[in-house]
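testing teh design pipeline on a random one, pls ignore if ur not involved
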């Protein structure tokens, strides 16, 4: 599906969910969450060829490890964004903030090996 078709479908569904929200609010939240998961699935299908192409460009060794860390961080960030928005839509702003903080800490923890390598490289350059 194209971005135009997805955008049109989501706009129509959002109007539909507004009507459902007035009748039964919990059904609208559940339905929008399901649609959101379906959109994530469609996006993942689009991302696979891109990941395969970028993976073919990376070299073996340390650079492929860097690529894995970056891709995991991007995945965590996207998942966090979706989870936060679902929490905000359900009126749980504090829970959304907690998820956001947790995901930021996880990304930071995943990127610590990269930070260590950068600092080691800077130290090596300064010693020359």
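output:
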């Amino acid at each position: 599906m194209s971005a135009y078709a997805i955008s049109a479908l989501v706009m129509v569904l959002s109007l539909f969910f507004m009507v459902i929200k007035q009748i039964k609010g919990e059904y609208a939240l559940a339905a929008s969450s399901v649609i959101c998961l379906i959109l994530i699935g469609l996006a993942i299908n689009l991302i696979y060829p891109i990941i395969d192409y970028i993976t073919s460009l990376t070299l073996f060794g340390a650079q492929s490890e860097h690529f894995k860390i970056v891709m995991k961080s991007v995945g965590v960030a996207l998942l966090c964004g979706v989870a936060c928005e679902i929490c905000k839509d359900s009126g749980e702003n504090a829970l959304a903030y907690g998820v956001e903080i947790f995901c930021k800490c996880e990304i930071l923890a995943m990127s610590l090996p990269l930070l260590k390598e950068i600092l080691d490289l800077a130290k090596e350059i300064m010693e020359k």
